[in-house]
Amino acid sequence: MATSSSSFSSPQESAPGVLGKVPQTPGDLIIYSLEDLKGSDFKRFRNKLSDFSYGDKLPIPRGKLENADCISTKDLLIDTYGEEGALDVTIHVFTLIGLMGPTNDLQERRGQY
Predict the structure, then answer these.
(1) At 5, which helix (H) or strand (E)?
(2) Is there a smaller number of Cβ atoms within 10 Å at the N or the C end of the chain?
């Protein structure tokens, strides 16, 4: 039975996104970025998002965003714009509301996944 344990990966060999390494999916990137926002910045993000059109897509209705947490907001972004579009929209909205730190962090993380 000792040989079966050798087939498991050690924590150091874990995939990206595990144990603080680079997230793997656009959804992960968005969640980590939204979770880093202060409460007032997250509220401003959701407010601007409800007024933001992207391509041929209409803005996400304010009523859907009003009480949305980070995960629900990420889900709404991806459902509305697709994974890559959701990343683009998140970066654009961060920029529009003057959150350059989160904008730069998200762009850097995006380049790593």
Answers:
(1) helix 2-5
(2) N
57: β partners: 54
- Greater pLDDT, 7 or 79: 79
Q: How far apart are CA 17 and CA 28, in angstroms?
A: 8
Give the pTM: 0.77
89 to 16, 21, 41: CA distances (angstroms): 24, 24, 16
Q: pLDDT-based confidence at 5, cuts 50/70/90?
A: very low
* ∠ Cα 93 96 101 (to 5°): 80
pLDDT digits 0-9 by tens, 69-89: 999 999 999 999 999 999 999
What are the φ and ψ backbone dihedral angles of 61, each rounded to 5 degrees? -60, 140
Structural domains in the chain, CATH included, are: 23-112 (1.10.533.10)
